[in-house]
Amino acid sequence: MGKQIVVAGGGAAGMMAALSAAEEGASVTIVEHNDRVGRKILSTGNGRCNYTNLFQSPQCYRSDENDFPWKIISRFPAEWVIRKFEEMGVMPKDKNGYIYPFSEQASAVLDVLRMELDRCGVRIVTSAHVSDILRTKKGWQVEILHGGKKKEKMNCDSVILACGSRAASKLGNDGSGYDLAKKLGHKIIPVVPALVQLKCRENFYPSLAGVRVNGKVSIWIDGKKHGEDTGELQMNAYGISGIPVFQISRIAAKGLYRKQSVCAEVDFMPQLTDDAWRQMLEERKRLHPEKEMSAFFTGVFHKKLSEVLLKISGIPRMKKAGELTEAELERLVKEGKHFRTDIIDTNPFEQAQICAGGVSTAELSAQTMESRIAKGIYFAGELVDVDGICGGYNLHWAWASGYLAGKGAANA
User: Do 195 and 353 meet the contact criterion of CB atoms below 8 Å apart?
Assistant: First the structure.
């Protein structure tokens, strides 16, 4: 008779773990506190589900133990994920390396997973959550709370914790897995929002709301640069957003958690060097000395952004371009290429796509995802201190870590 395994959490990692264990002959039960499994999958990739990416490198995954994610990802490349889902019925669509289901419907990915769970005989218990895990002489006893009231106790050989993080709580994530992990003796790396918008101190952001601009953004902590990314930035009433901001937001969040000084530097002209940008401004001054400064950046920047750059550079809107002093021109060079803004917070967990932090990977086996502290306990997905950049990497981590945890638990 196969192993008895309970999977806490029916998200991407939990479902893959259950399938992996069931394929090895285990009897598997998923406990999911939503009324259905896989809700978060439906919101990924703007409803299209970017479920992996052809470009894979260690830099796409972050953890306090930097080399841990790649020990796993390198064994489960994008081709493995694509093949796995093709076997379940999902035809891939390649968009510059970003892999989506051919239908571009996230529901297709969830549907095939649910069909496979049914085919493999996985029991799914919804609107319930694992409230406690206790060691027994033969394995583990899992306490399941149904609807917040009725308790059920299940004995099993192994438990796979794939409960998710604190991100996107509206989709059912509540961070309860951290408490279970701590009770089992695990260290939790401080959990902060990641892939999230950043709030800024300055009071001019309401006037920039809605502006989109291609640029490069870098994060500076206590005066030192700690990461950068380039792409379309979005200005909001509270601060900055967009994919480049998401990519480096975990760095800012970690710095804020440590009570350090955090700021962002934005380069609104990343395609030009400082000298080339200066020459461009000098040429605009020379060609149209009669223009008022309110129109100086017309055709270059959004009008709202132009107004802010002039204001923080201390240049009157009505001043003629030909009257610009060297000092004023230099300030425009600086603000266009080295625009500094103080980061005071991130948007809350509810608006974060993922979290940074979680169960310390130093206490997990990279071969099986089993706990080094509590034999028979396995971890997968967002609960672990591994987070990926935008582009299908967090789902890829869910598939790989879930598959490994399921195999490990079934074959222990």
Answer: yes
